[in-house]
Amino acid sequence: MTTPPSLRAIAAADDYDPNSMPVDQARAHIRAFLTPVTTVERLHIRDALGRILAEDVVSTIDVPAHDNSGMDGYAMRHADLQPDADVTLRVVGTSFAGRPYTGPVNAGEAVRIFTGAVVPPDCDTVIMQERAKAADGNVTLGTGAKAGQNVRKAGEDLKTGAVVFHKGQRVRAAELGMLASIGVIEVSVYRRLRVALFSTGDELVQLGGTPGPGQIFDSNRYTMYGMLADLGCEVIDMGVVRDRPEDVEAAFAAAAAAADVVMTSGGVSVGDADYVKQMLDRLGEVLFWKIAMKPGRPLAFGRIDGAHFFGLPGNPVAVMVTFYQFVRDALFVLMGRTDVTPVPMFKVPLAAPIRKAPGRTEFQRGILSRGADGALSVVTTGDQGSGILSSMSRANCFIVLPTDQGNVDVGTLVDVQPMDGVI
Ligand code: AMP
Ligand code: MG
């Protein structure tokens, strides 16, 4: 293990303002201080779904292995066709998928062929059966066929020796299929990232309990579990921790010892007791930021006893927004992924006005839909309070409004980040 760089360098920078940290700057700071997992395991490809490859994968075969037909029809030499007249060729055999025709195909001859069947070496072109008339062991073919048409060339998908996937790439369904297509049974992947989480708050009641006056069920721990499990993390749920110094300290120590990453909700905002900050300074190195964003202002980031630490806000929507805007990509990097790119955004006209004060980047929850005319537009889910968790459930996108943006009128193009595939 290399020694991780110190976070103190960030805090020493001239433009460092923990009380008004721009979103992009926070992302960059986090990105610079991540130490990815290095332990590797070999898994059957099926078990590697969602994992990150720890090696390049090189193909030992051509895919497809042979020139083969893209259609049911007839294979022949293009030179035997006429540009301006029908031609009748003698059908000398049949090439089935998995059962090639092995004889010669001479001038004036053709082979009946089916989709996926090997195109005989003497042939270079396939004409679909709808354009062919077969009778008495012959086939009559019309004009207009291009040389090589309907022939899938050997190696056109993957060539022998080609790097099919790179180390650091995530294995999805398409990758599983491609691995199988080149005969790979096992791959080396990084071990799963272990994330220990707990929520803090005297007001929280565990499921199964009965909330007393002023108490609420702990929902954040379930939201956090869901977000982490979706990414493929191994989640260690450490329950609810009371706002008591001894309890919080013990929880942080146990979490850091058990996991690569510690993630918490609540307890890191300005109003929270200073003892948390002092304690974390003792246990490790943690920065407390107020991010210039809405929702989700407070975010603590650093290291506790060698584990990475993300202290998320307490408000239920802020937990999710902060996770998706900062933690998700960081976790991918920690998992060993090298192709992490920001979630794509695209511009869509607003179908109902939005009120916004300049000063913070807002991640409003939006509903993107297609009108009768087929055009996309977006509206917010309504009340954007940071406790309205139903806004996250109803939304299918974030509407991202830049820092300096004020109120937004109907028809204005706004940046939209789809949640599907992200969340
Ligand atoms: P805090 O950041 O701890 O001050 O919490 C801010 C708000 O989020 C308060 O209204 C809390 O009651 C609420 N909250 C904190 N933790 C949770 C949780 N685990 N589940 C649901 N709501 C929470
Ligand atoms: Mg709290």
Please describe the topology of this protein.
Layout lengths: L7 H5 L10 H9 L8 E5 L12 E2 L9 E2 L3 E4 L10 E9 L13 E5 L11 E4 L3 E4 L2 E4 L9 E2 L10 E3 L7 H9 L4 E5 L3 E7 L3 E2 L10 E2 L2 H12 L2 E8 L3 H14 L2 E5 L8 H10 E7 L2 E2 L3 E7 L2 E6 L3 H19 L11 E4 L11 E10 L5 E5 L9 H5 L2 E5 L11 E6 L5
Parallel strand pairs: 5-6, 13-16, 13-17, 14-15, 17-21, 19-23
Antiparallel strand pairs: 1-12, 2-11, 3-10, 4-6, 4-7, 5-9, 8-9, 18-20, 20-21, 22-26, 23-24, 23-25, 25-26
Helix pairs in contact: 2-7, 4-7, 5-6
Bound molecules: adenosine monophosphate and magnesium ion (MG).
The site of magnesium ion has 5 residues, from loops.
Can you walk me through this structure?
The protein is elongated and about 90 Å long. The strands form seven sheets. A six-stranded mixed sheet has the order 7-4-6-5-9-8, with no helix packed on it. By secondary structure, it is α+β, with helices and mostly antiparallel strands. The longest helix has 19 residues, at 316-334. It has four domains: 7-39 and 193-335, Molybdenum Cofactor Biosythetic Enzyme, Chain A (3-Layer(aba) Sandwich); 41-60 and 156-190, Alpha-Beta Complex (Molybdopterin biosynthesis moea protein, domain 2), CATH 3.90.105.10; 68-152, Molybdopterin biosynthesis moeA protein, domain 3 (Beta Complex), CATH 2.170.190.11; 346-418, MoeA, C-terminal, domain IV (Beta-clip, Beta Barrel), CATH 2.40.340.10. A hairpin with a 2-residue loop joins β8 and β9. The chain has helices spanning 8-12, 23-31, 173-181, 220-231, 245-258, 274-283, 316-334, 390-394, and strands spanning 40-44, 57-58, 68-69, 73-76, 87-95, 109-113, 125-128, 132-135, 138-141, 151-152, 163-165, 186-190, 194-200, 204-205, 216-217, 234-241, 261-265, 284-290, 293-294, 298-304, 307-312, 346-349, 361-370, 376-380, 397-401, 413-418. It contains eight helices and 26 strands. Magnesium ion binds next to loops.
